[in-house]
């Protein structure tokens, strides 16, 4: 499997992800108004789970964020862990390459447009 992204593209996406992560963490700190949750942020940054069982505890840890922010924090963290991997930028459902333009808008995208659309079905529109 070869990288479909150049090193420069990858670095750019990683940078975007890091900025977004900082943003979300800062927002969470604001919500918490001085309660020290640095340790929790660290846990979120270092966890390497992919699976549902961890979500219950995430929900407790991140209750200072809205649901959407919690989801985004998870997605961004997950993407940062994978940004250097061969399968970063590949659709998790059909393994198609996700176009750089799509990743640039949403570096945490895990699926190609059609798979994402299929998953979201008749739900609310994607961000
Ligand atoms: Zn797909």
Automatic annotation (TrEMBL):
Gene3D superfamilies: DksA, coiled-coil domain (1.20.120.910). Residues 30-59 are annotated as: Disordered. InterPro entries: Znf_DskA_TraR (IPR000962), Znf_DskA_TraR_CS (IPR020458). GO terms for molecular function: zinc ion binding. It comes from Caldimonas caldifontis. Residues 30-42 have a biased composition (Basic and acidic residues). It comes from the Bacteria. Residues 87-120 form the Zinc finger DksA/TraR C4-type domain. This is Molecular chaperone DnaK. A zinc finger (dksA C4-type) spans 91-115. Keywords: Metal-binding, Zinc, Zinc-finger. Pfam families: zf-dskA_traR (PF01258).
């Amino acid at each position: 499997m070869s990288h479909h992204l150049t090193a420069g593209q990858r670095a750019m996406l990683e940078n975007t992800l890091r900025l977004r992560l900082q943003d979300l963490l800062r927002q969470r700190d604001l919500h918490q108004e001085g309660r020290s949750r640095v340790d929790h942020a660290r846990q979120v940054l270092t966890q390497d789970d992919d699976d549902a069982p961890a979500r219950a505890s995430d929900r407790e840890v991140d209750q200072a964020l809205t649901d959407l922010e919690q989801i985004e924090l998870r997605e961004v963290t997950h993407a940062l862990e994978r940004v250097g991997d061969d399968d970063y930028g590949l659709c998790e459902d059909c393994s198609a390459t996700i176009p750089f333009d799509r990743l640039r808008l949403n570096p945490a995208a895990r699926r190609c447009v059609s798979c994402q659309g299929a998953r979201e079905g008749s739900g609310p529109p994607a961000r």
